[in-house]
Amino acid sequence: MLLWIFLVGFAAANEEFSLENKTHHAQYRGSQVLRVRNATESIRNLLKSLEGEKAIEIWKQSNVFGKFTDILVPSFTLSFVRQQFENLNATFRVMIADVESAMHEQIAIAPRRQSNKNKKSRSYNLTFQRYHRISDIYAYLEYLVSKFPSICSIETIGTTIQGREIKVLKISGSNAKFGFYIEGGIHAREWVSPASVAYIVRELVEYRSKNSFAENADYYVSPVANPDGYEFTHTNSRLWRKNRRDSTDKSCPGVDLNRNYGYQWGGLGASRQSCDETFAGENSFSEPETQAVRDFLTKIGPSVQAYVAFHSYGQYILYPYGYDKVLAPDSAVLQKLGARIARNIKKASKKKYKVGNSAILLYEASGGADDWAKGSVGIKYTYTIELRDAGRYGFLLPASQIEATGKDAFIAIKTITQEIAGIGRKKKSRF
Ligand SMILES: [Zn+2]
């Protein structure tokens, strides 16, 4: 009865919740992010049913008992949801007391002021002091090609549903022995991912003289793997995750691109319902964004030995498989190298990243890019890295943390490159 009364009220409020306009952050006024301890089966079931009723949105999930699930609770369901937790004696704490304020905080940090002289000499707007639209990120790639034509080139590997280009920057090594694919921004709302990938690009190109390890590889860098979704988070709905595919009934657009890849597609942790955040699509590789990566990697062939996809948040270094609790035969190698990455990051920044198999450490998710890269293409060193933070801001990480997060990401790329190239293992490496 209580749920029924709640749902009637919720249906009316939901109209407003989905408003798409310029002041889209206002829809989150009074919404909170809660961290709930996953202590019992009944708490887990409650979370599932609340999510099914759209009374909450799952931000970060763990299927492991005793761990936490982070949820976004809209203001108009807040008292109902909190009451439900109290009824079950569920332990929870407030991570973000007002989501709208956190959104403003994230974008409020002004860029470092450039002097006029400095500004004139630059042909791009990208900074690491704020989050940028895709046009700024792409303009930076174009600038690098014009300034460093001997090592940089751009290939447009596909076009999105809304007609945006999917670009890959190739950074050629003078002594390249293998290819290294770097993917950012497949989930639209994880803003620190494209920003960190852009940071990696700057290190590999503009600061190349102090990063000579990079000569051992050809890097293929796709900073924004989901351009339509990424732009939508800037213009309409900050917490959008999927691409912008129209669904058959028009009411629930979007496919989760990281459930659309063709290795064990449509299994655990992927939904067949278009309204769900993890909707896997009508078929594997049904989306132009995933087709583009598939075709490009098939074309560049077996030289690629590493594939790293950057996501946020949680600070995890994850290796396949994700479709079930199944380990690849060489998983011990991936665990060991993952632990080395985590150690190097900790040395540099004191931040802790947990290392493990994604299905065991977090939850099952089939149709991911990482499973496909490992299982179908056979790329040995495949990782999904969840960047900062550990949950204080979640997807709304303040821009003041972009540089430090980019540095974590760069350390991962450096450590993996050194491992494959067989360098830097004995020497004490500095980051
Ligand atoms: Zn993600």
TrEMBL record:
The molecular function terms in GO held by this entry are: metallocarboxypeptidase activity; zinc ion binding
What does the entry give for GO biological process? proteolysis
Under the heading PROSITE patterns, the entry gives: PEPTIDASE_M14 (PS52035)
Mind naming one GO cellular-component term on file for this protein? extracellular space
- Cite the entry's keywords alphabetically: Carboxypeptidase, Disulfide bond, Hydrolase, Metal-binding, Metalloprotease, Protease, Signal, Zinc
Q: Identify the catalytic residues.
A: E386 (proton donor/acceptor)
Extract the CDD domains matched here. M14_CP_A-B_like
Zinc-finger recorded as keyword? no
Query: What range(s) does the Peptidase M14 domain occupy?
Result: 130-420
Similarity annotation: Belongs to the peptidase M14 family.
Q: By what name is this protein known?
A: Peptidase M14 domain-containing protein
Look up and give the organism this protein is from: Cloeon dipterum
